[in-house]
Amino acid sequence: MRHEPKSSSASQRFCATKPRDHWLPLLAAAKVPAGPIYRVDEVASDPALRSRGVIYRIEADGHAIPQIGLGIRVDGAEAGIRMAPPRLGEHTEEVLTQLLGYDKARMAELRLHAAI
Fold first, then answer.
1. How wide is the angle at C-alpha 58 spanned by C-alphas 83 and 51, nearest 5°?
2. 55 and 66 in contact (C-beta within 8 Å)?
3. What separation in angstroms does the CA of 111 have from each of 27, 43, 57, 94, 114?
C-alpha cells in the first residue's frame, strides 16, 4: 500500500509518476546528490551498508541476532559491540530491585500475579 501525503507539491506528484529506480540514474547523470529512501527490508539487504559492517549479526545463546550499527567511525575505527541485546525479561529482576528498590516480598507478589 502506498501512502501519499495529503498536500503534495507538483514536484512530489511528478516524481510519483515513476518508481525511484527510474529517477536515481537520471539524477546521478545530472550530478544531483540524491539517494533512495529505503524500507526496513531494503536497509537490511543494502550491499554498501553490509560491506561497511553497518548491518551485521551477533551470536548470543546459539542464535545469530541481526543488528544495525551506528555507522559512525572515529579515526577510521567503528564503534565496537558491547553486548547482545537483552532477551525478553532478562534484566527485569535487576531493574526492579536495583533501580526501583523492590524487595523480595514485592518480587514474590509480582510473580504470584504473573506480572513478571
1. 120
2. yes
3. 59, 40, 33, 14, 5
Taking CA atoms, 45 is separated from 84, 86, 107, 110, in Å, by 21, 24, 43, 42
Question: Looking at residue 2, what is its pLDDT?
Answer: 57
pLDDT for the residue numbered 61:
84
Contacts of 53 (CB under 8 A, 6+ apart): 69, 78
How far, in Å, CA of 48 to CA of 36, rounded? 13
Measured between alpha carbons, how far is 59 from 63 in angstroms, rounded to an integer? 6
Mean pLDDT, range 76-86, rounded to an integer: 76
Instruction: Give the whole-angstrom CA distance, residue 30 versus residue 13.
Output: 20
Residue 28: per-residue pLDDT: 96
DSSP summary character for residue 6:
S
Q: What is the pLDDT of residues 16-44, one digit of tens each?
A: 999 999 999 999 999 999 988 888 888 88
**Taking 70 as the threshold, does the pLDDT of residue 55 lie above it?**
yes
**CA–CA separation, 46 and 55 (whole Å):** 9
